[in-house]
Amino acid sequence: MPEYAVVGKSVPRMDGRVKVTGQAMFAGDLVAPGMLHGKILRSPYAHARIVSIDASRARKLVGVRAIITGNDFPGIKFGFVPVTRDQLPFATDKVRHFGEAVAAIAASDEDTAEEALDLIRVEYQELPAVLTIQDALRDGAPLVHDDKPGNVAFTSRYHYGDVDAGFRDSDYVKELHLTTQRVSHGFLEPHCMFVTPGGDRVTLQGSKQSPYITWRHLCRAMDLPLSKVRMLNPYVGGAYSGKHDPFDVDFAAVKLALVTRRPVRVELTQDEVLASQRQRHAKDAWVKLGAKKDGTLLALDCKVYFEGGAYACCSPINLRAFGANILMPYRIPNVRYEGIRVYTNKPPCGAVRGQSTVISRYVLDSVLTDLATDLGIDQLEIRRKNGLRNGDETCSGIRFEEFGFPETLDRIERMLPWPEKRDTKAPWHGIGFAADAGGSGSRARGHWASAAVVKVTEDGGVNLIQGATDVGQGSDTVLAQICAEALGVRFEDVSVSEEDTDASVLEQGIYSSRTTVWAGNAVKVAAEDARRQLAQVAAGLLEASEQDIVFRLGSVYVASDPKRSITFSEVVRKAYYERGQPVYGRGTWGIDAGRSDWATAKDPPTPGRGSNCIVVEVAVDPETGKVRIVEAVTAHDAGQPINPALLAGQFEGGSLAHIGQSILEECLMDGNGRSVNPDFFDYKMPTALDAPHFRSEPVIVHNSQGPFGAKGGGELASCGIVAAVANAITDAIGVRITDLPITPQKILRAIQEKR
Fold first, then answer.
1. pTM beyond 0.90, yes or no
2. Which terminus of the chain has a lower count of CB atoms within 10 Å, N or C?
3. Considering 499, 666, 715, 753, which one is annotated as catalytic?
């Protein structure tokens, strides 16, 4: 294993000091002279026709500068892919969910804007609503969209091998029906957009996870040239895949700024976020798993309905992610999958951390755990027996190279240790296993590349210009480490510029565990380009060949004679002052391979696949039904860790968030589709007091396609914990609860029914 100078070190986060001292500027902190405050009027109905909107009284209120409705936009729909473009910036003909935007106001202060909202009169004709999968799919059900018969937004299906024959050959078949709930992202910073008009352009500064995605889709829906819209990011207060798309807050701020020619800031309340913005799909899944009596898996059949609300959003990627990952990380020769995304009159669902992989892991590892229990096979052994190994190929044609799943199982066995832990657990304690495998991003659409520019300043400092947003996960720090290692400078000599569509470079977005590999590779290429330019200069100064020049931690020397050296800054000054040669390194990176097949859910090519195994111990109080997560242990193959502390933090933070889906969180709505818990008092998320003892260890299997051997790891390390918690509770109480979240009431009922 190479000895790196910067990579592999747990250096402190670049943004740590400014955040803990309160110096970091978020979108809600931004102000400008003459700034107006925007507010959005939302529908009180889940489904209704808009008969008329009368804003005359509101316009007369002192301080009101502009009022807009859906008819002030061009009428161009937006969405993830052309086939699912079904949403307008604001509702026009009818509203399709509670809280949908129908009008917006810009006023001199927030109080005036709030008062003006109350003066707008909207006449609605209430329509029958469909709020569940069953209601939406029944014959004659009201249609959420008139052009979407049956309320089906999208389907994805595949069939590999001979599933029926696989079940006939099985000695034992296990079936489960599992349901999961809607959850919110839980980020602390609500959606906010600050827009400044200037000349014939507008500048957007918002809380966005993937500015490039927002930029493209917003410009399309508003019929604005990309060249007339500049988008840059301040600090972002968490996202968890909830801040990719353009939202009503973004459209409102841009349109109000264009109308008033004044700066406008629109910031949502947390109530608005929890009641009307994106959530994770609720799912209704039937799964069937067949095996020989020795535990060898033969066949898997899964059908799942996605309840996703009024607009399709990124449903193709959700259905594909579920189907592509339902069989991983196991060898199953015969697999059939069908995913159906259903429209309802609820807020739209989109991407949430881990996408649908979190639930596909829950579905498969739940039925696998029960099958192993029924056959009397150890939980670790059934995963070892059926786990994919390096060089294996799935029935869908995915080949696993440089893959370390068996090693993660071996590491877990040593970390527990197992089976001693199994045989000595206390009463009402349970231990649950789950496993996962995933890629490092993929080419799902055309613009699926990353780019970077490394500018070396005259005094030897380094400015890294790239487009990957740090939303709290520490990507700026990781990319700076990659840059420093490849260029041969100290970590503290590298600064990272904020994302800016004028000044930075192409970056598709932050999701799918792609940033370290894709953006990291682009940064590495750019840094190596800058180093080659400086090596030409250093070779002349040190009277050596360019190939013999070494750059390390700000020192430049001859490999065969390290005493012949010069400082990095001296080389840079020579380039600038004597040669007139500014140093800009340029790099792009992507995989030139096939794209995602949304309809069949076949997993696209990805640069390196990682794996993990997670084990959770829980304690259940049989008198109250309350669950305490005692410990969570994971061994994960994320290739070479660039920053081990940040990687461990990804596991701990993501795992704690997903524990919420296991036992606490649920977006609840009444029979009219209105949110009944739109605040953090009633929407129960885990806090530090609920955090278990976390232990994680990396299993380093080098990835030849990743920078310095790295793989993606952010989502991978935590996607299995919902399954592991559910399996641990099943082990503790001796019965499977099949609907999430697993609340104390459900546990007490299950214990009583068992007795």
1. yes
2. C
3. 715
